[in-house]
Specification:
By secondary structure, the chain is α+β, with helices and mostly antiparallel strands. It has a single domain, classed as Endonuclease/exonuclease/phosphatase (Deoxyribonuclease I, Chain A). It is built from six helices and 13 strands. The strands form two sheets. Strands 1, 2, 3, 4, 5, 12 and 13 form a seven-stranded mixed β-sheet that branches. It has a six-stranded mixed β-sheet with strand order 6-7-8-9-11-10.
Length: about 270
């Protein structure tokens, strides 16, 4: 009987301490995420002409920065101009060691043309969208790629898009389409990289700001890469991402060879819940 009492007393005194000692420690270190957006001009360096492609040069730009997520615009797949055997999104994934997703916008040069994303994180899901132009327009249908990934135990969305370069009328319709996509994913933190083909002073940008936040008021110039005169390329966060992440750095990389656009890089830190 006395032996049984001492066993109970021992359990009451010591078992909670043992359980507490074995409990996992809380996650103290915030997760950092590095993001890039890059219009790669179908990997055709401006100094070489459209008949020449240098995908390795684009990969070197990405590998130097070591981003976790990359939004790509002007991507060719099996085209005559870039090589009928060349799938630029897949090859860049192989050259950078990243997962990839391509979203077709239109048929071009005997193949496909659109946007893509690269990810160091395994891709959980993918979506591809076309951004339309107005009736009888001479503008170009453009693409939007959206993936979801797991970052620090949370699901995060990542988007790449490219808007028409010819008319505000078409860009307005494309922004309305983007806003519809972003509204659908408003409960998910979404990081968004794009060549908008317009500066922030354009009134159409205000429409997009209903869904995303631009991270600089006077963003560094991005185009053309050798002597930049305008800002066309941006990294943005939707409202949920703005709550979930702290912005550490936003910068433009002074790369002049690989494309006529300079890449933009964003460093984020996930806020601890």
């Amino acid at each position: 009987m006395y032996k049984g009492i001492w066993i109970v007393i021992w359990e009451l005194l010591w078992m909670p301490r043992i359980v507490f000692a074995q409990a996992p420690a809380a996650q103290d270190t915030p997760v950092e995420v590095k993001v890039m957006t890059y219009n790669i001009r179908i990997a055709s360096p401006p100094s070489k002409g459209w008949e020449y492609t240098d995908l390795h040069a684009v990969a070197e730009v990405i590998n130097r920065e070591k981003p976790d997520l990359v939004a790509l615009q002007e991507v060719d797949v099996y085209t005559e101009r870039s090589g009928k055997a060349s799938h630029q999104a897949r090859e860049l994934g192989e050259l950078t060691g990243m997962h990839w997703h391509f979203a077709k916008a239109i048929d071009r040069s005997g193949g496909d043309y659109g946007v893509a994303v690269l990810s160091q994180y395994p891709i959980v899901s993918t979506q591809s969208f076309q951004l339309p132009v107005t009736a009888h327009s001479e503008g170009e249908i453009r693409g939007c790629a959206l993936i979801t990934v797991q970052v620090g135990g949370r699901e995060v969305g990542f988007m790449s898009a490219h808007l028409d370069h010819q008319s505000d009328e078409d860009r307005l319709l494309q922004v309305k389409t983007l806003n519809g996509i972003l509204r659908k994913y408003r409960n998910l933190p979404v990081i968004f990289g794009a060549d908008l083909n317009m500066e922030q002073c354009n009134p159409i940008v205000r429409r997009l700001k209903a869904q995303v936040s631009f991270l600089c008021d006077s963003c560094t110039l991005t185009f053309p890469s050798d002597t930049p005169m305008v800002t066309l390329d941006y990294l943005m966060l939707n409202r949920k991402a703005l709550k979930d992440f702290e912005v550490i750095e936003y910068k433009v990389i002074p790369e002049v060879y690989a494309s006529d656009h300079r890449p933009v890089v964003l460093q984020l830190k996930m806020k601890v819940e």
